[in-house]
Design goal:
Shape: globular
Organism: Pycnococcus provasolii
Order of helices and strands: HEHEHEEHHHHHH
Strand order of the largest sheet: 2-1-3-4
Strand content: 5-15%
Oligomer: single chain
Keywords: Transferase
InterPro entries: Glutathione-S-Trfase_C-like (IPR010987), Glutathione-S-Trfase_C_sf (IPR036282), Glutathione_S-Trfase (IPR040079), Glutathione_S-Trfase_N (IPR004045), GST_C (IPR004046), GST_superfamily (IPR050213), Thioredoxin-like_sf (IPR036249)
Number of domains: 3
Distance between the termini: 69 Å
Domain GST C-terminal: 122-256
CATH class of the largest domain: Mainly Alpha
Largest sheet: 4 strands, mixed
GO molecular function, one term: glutathione transferase activity
CATH topology of the largest domain: Glutathione S-transferase Yfyf (Class Pi), Chain A, domain 2
Number of strands: 4
Radius of gyration: 22 Å
Helix content: 55-70%
Length: 256
Amino acid sequence: MSMKMSAASCCSGVLDSIVHYVQYKLSIFREPPPKTLELRYFDIAGKGAPIRQVAAYIGAEFTDHRYKTREEFLVEDKPKLKFGQVPLLKAGFGPINIDMVQTTAIMRYLARAYGRKDLYPDGARGQIVDSLCDFEVDFALGESAIKYGERNGIILDEEATKKSIDAYVQVIKQKLELLDKCIANKPPMSEKDSPWLAGTKLPTIADFLWGCRLRGTASSLNTWGKSSEVDLSKFPNVKRFFDAYSSIPIVKKWSN
């Protein structure tokens, strides 16, 4: 009996060694980070800001190209884009250039390419980060419909726009309450007293995405004359997160 167990343990140890060796050899051939990066977007924060911030946070050198006019975007890039939208990240690998689109997908790519698992973790925690990113999309749907409805076939007259803004302000409060509870009920593997959304030691891509979103929504509320109707201090966990995000040095530099 003991000999069988010993043989099994030996085989298991050999198998583990083989697996580790293969993983090591494969890691040597991982795709290297791009040699050049160029982010093309409008001269606003919008969906470009979280990419700029993540790229700066990981120390990646990149060209921050901002269209001088909408005509420049329409002529130079829109006809060639996969989905007709920016941000566009042009990643250069020597003779090969790859155009990358969609904000969160670009942020995930940058974290992986530069080996920053703190920004985009593996496993269960990575799923939590993904879910937070997806919830940010849900949070912004109403704002996007009000501001850019015509692009998606939504036509609002002046009266309908006012009603939509009033209704969306209530939705913002509801979703901030959900986010506040989410932060309060962090997963078991969370760091103690972490201010970050996924309970991590350092910020993830979800934190940069949500930080930019909250800033953008605050700007929209101000434009609509509704700033006083959403008080972030009523959502203490969200407020604590946003203060921590705002204190990151590169956020101040790349806020727009």
